[in-house]
Amino acid sequence: MLTYLPKRIGQGLLTVFLTVSVVFLLIRMAPGDPAASFAGPLATNEQLAAVREQFGLDKPLLQQYVIFIGQLFTGHLGQSYSFQAPAVQVVMDRLPYTLTLATSSILLAALVAIPLGMWMARRSDTDAELGVNVLTIAGQSMPDFWTGIMLLTGFSVLIPLFPASGFTTWGGLVLPTITVAILQIALVSRMVKREMVTNFNAPYLNIARSRGVSERVLTWKYALGNAGIPVFTALGTRFAAMLNGVVVVEVVFGWPGVGSLIVRALETRDYPLIQATVLITALLAVVVQLLIDLAYPLLDPRVRLGKAASA
Amino acid sequence: MSTTISNPTQAPQSARSSAVTKQMLKKSSAARRARSTRIKLWLGTILTLVVVVPIALANLLPIADPNMQDLGARRLAPLVDGHLFGTDQLGRDLLSRVLFGGQTSLMIGVLAVVVSGAIGVILGSIAGFYGKWADVIISRVLEAQMSLPLLMMLLLVVALFGPSIPVITGVIAIAQWPEVARLTRSLVLVEREKPYVDAAKTLGLPKLRILAQHVIPNVFKQASLVILLLLAQAVLLESALSFLGAGPQRPFSTWGRLISDGQDYITTSWWMVTLPGLFIVILVVGVNLLGDALRDGNLRRSSKKEGK
Fold it and tell me: What is the pLDDT of residues A251-283, one digit of tens each?
């Protein structure tokens, strides 16, 4: 444990550092001049040069990178060009929205997918299960932007139950949550089913049954207890991935989160904003992943961190 | 509950007529599982063909030119004036646009899968077969890429190199190779311990040749099962990129672009978004079902072989 934690934190920080470095290089290789999009089409060459100097874009790439590394340590990543505010601040303002959407989606997914997967495992290979199985395949086959537009048309245009865009009331959370959750439900319920079936067929369960353990305890305590660990990891990993912004769904619903922010930042070549977004979301994802790994021994006493956790 | 646990009904060995009826055999879990796999296989094939055949034959079908505008026939509803799927905001035939757009979407998907499959199989088998530093480097790159925000990186790269078809294909391939590589690596790890590899080494065959001529052909079939699932993902990824405006540019009208164009008219012309979307869903469901059924079938066969 004492060597495990520093090692994991080190690995996580390295991943974040490499990610932001790759992004730093990529956006500077990209065509398109942030100075031009900032100063407007009528700007003279002198004005463009002034803007570049103001943003520090006239310096050699290596020097810009050194400055950027320095900024990483101070936590101040410069002013966003388009928002005229500290980039980190802009991202932090958007973060709660993405967090809300990700949390509600993962909760809905877990609430639906775990019972559904258990039902599928118990009714394995019946006609009803086949039907649900095909439905889950459909769930993972629908493009989320299309599902979103369909729900939007159905439940806010034709039947005006929910607001169409943005996040002004809690009702605005319903449709984006469902849109994001559909895919997660499909994937997680299939995984729950697989794990449960494996456990149902495991020798230990037959032995427990022969000793007279009731079916209810077998299902809920034995099988679900063992199946729960990989499922928990999967849910956590999906949650971590969502923190990078549920880009497409946020764009469809005009959700003021990190995902729609990054699309806008890419369009306007807002370098500090892109860097800040990537840095913060990558950091968050690494932290969530670490928390999941740390929670492992609590769920499964057989796991000793630092030995089995790497497997 | 008991359905998943009970053993398949077994016929007694003796010669006298069995107490086990045909109906009981049909109800056994093994028979039912085989039946679900068969149904998935057929359903998947039908759904895939429903989409792929018209797309493949689009040039031969008697449909309007996808780019021919008719401003007098803007946003006609489906089935009006011989437009099966209606027309879009410039009076272009939607069916024709969906089919020709599908050619681009499918081509990108297939190419991306071929490229990612090749990269994945080569790098994965190198990592699995040679081990040591090759494995360390490739596995680290895999892990690093899987922790990157995927769609964000794809958008970034497309912004960098421009949304041309080779770039989009490459980007999707790069997004997908880790899955193939991980699978191949784990298969090769098992395969390289088999006696025939030792035999080949004893005979003095160079390592690269053992890998290329003996190991890879042996794992290829199992690794290729993931291809259909990747194709489904590739089609979805391409449509998402197109929807965000990072897809192939004019004159190519891919499915994602059709949907994003139609979004502005959703309240008055539902078909412009709904129908292209349904095409994607039918294709991807079909391909996923096929992939699922093939994987089920393969799992059962391999577990039978090993006597589990």
Answer: 888 888 888 888 888 888 888 888 888 888 888
Rounded-to-integer distance, Cα A193 and Cα A206, Å: 18
Chain A contacts in chain B segment 39-68 (CB below 8 A): 39-40, 43
User: What domains appear along chain A, each with residue ranges and CATH number?
Assistant: 94-268 (1.10.3720.10)
Nearest CB neighbour to A153, from listed B157, B270, B288: B270
Write a three-state SS string for B238-271.
Answer: HHHHHHCCCCCCCCCCCHHHHHHHHHHHCCCCCH
Measure Cα distances from A100 to A104, A233, A257 in Å: 6, 20, 9
Taking CB atoms and an 8 Å limit, are A125 and B32 in contact across chains?
yes
Decide if B237 touches A, using CB distance below 8 A: no
Taking the C-alpha atoms of residue A28 and residue A185, their distance in angstroms, rounded to an integer, is 39
Name the residue among A152, A215, A282 with its Cβ closest to that of B1. Answer: A215
* pTM value surpassing 0.95: no
Hey, are the CB atoms on A150 and B259 less than 8 Å from each other? no
The model's pLDDT over B98-114, given as tens digits with 9 standing for 90+, comes to 888 888 889 999 999 99
Minimal CA–CA distance to B86: which of B275, B260, B251? B275
Report d(CA A250, CA A257) in Å as an integer.
7
- Give the nearest partner residue to B1 out of A122, A145, A153, using CB atoms: A122
